[in-house]
């Protein structure tokens, strides 16, 4: 009896060269890494407590603007809270929600996609019809409905965004598995009596990790924007927790007079989402064999 070895893609020494070839992607990865460091070390590098109020310095402009002060580099909001400190702490919520929601959606979607693609038949049709039904509802409206029913909370938001985002993973992984299940290493594993669960875990899953990672990276950006949208509407995490969406909501009334209250969290949100999306493009190019052509 011969052992069957899965056709797992091997790492190529030119991966780093393929990444460095994408200059915009390198910038995006650098910005994203800085955002992660800021989020992790926010308690150490934030100049002020993000919730500390000082009405004597309310709505002070950034340090470089007329009337600004170096004590508050990005200015203060309507309650005298330091904008820079609140941006640092807001990054923690956004990246945590984005990463956890993408991880949850990836686990659920990958499991469904593997099972549906491998088993096929009526089981595949039922799961894909469920996916079609969910796609018929706009994800943000579905998230609004569920969060409105469950109530606000960080982990409620993670659960909602995770369980509303599994469809894209499932459909892509299913299509990959449909093409892989007829390959020689799968048919040989079946012939020697390897169980279906083992085939999916040891032979199919390693071959779909590249598209899974790419979709997951892109879903992080979507989850970050969705969390900000929910927080902007007051349906995300509790109001006392600093979020970029909540800062945008607080600053919308001051756009005409104190633009920095809303502009800086908006820029942080845009740069983070853009950096994550561009990082996903880099991962996609690296996973593509054409990316390794010299």
From TrEMBL:
The chain crosses the membrane at residues 24-46, 95-119, 126-147, 153-173, 208-233, 253-274. One of its GO terms (cellular component) is plasma membrane. It comes from the Bacteria. Pfam families: BPD_transp_1 (PF00528), OppC_N (PF12911). SUPFAM superfamilies: MetI-like. CDD domains: TM_PBP2 (cd06261). Gene3D superfamilies: MetI-like. Residues 91-280 form the ABC transmembrane type-1 domain. It is found in: Cell membrane. Signal peptide: none annotated. One of its GO terms (biological process) is transmembrane transport. It is a multi-pass membrane protein. Keywords: Cell membrane, Membrane, Transmembrane, Transmembrane helix, Transport. Belongs to the binding-protein-dependent transport system permease family. PANTHER family: D,D-DIPEPTIDE TRANSPORT SYSTEM PERMEASE PROTEIN DDPC-RELATED, OLIGOPEPTIDE TRANSPORT SYSTEM PERMEASE PROTEIN APPC. This is ABC transporter permease. It comes from Amycolatopsis dendrobii.
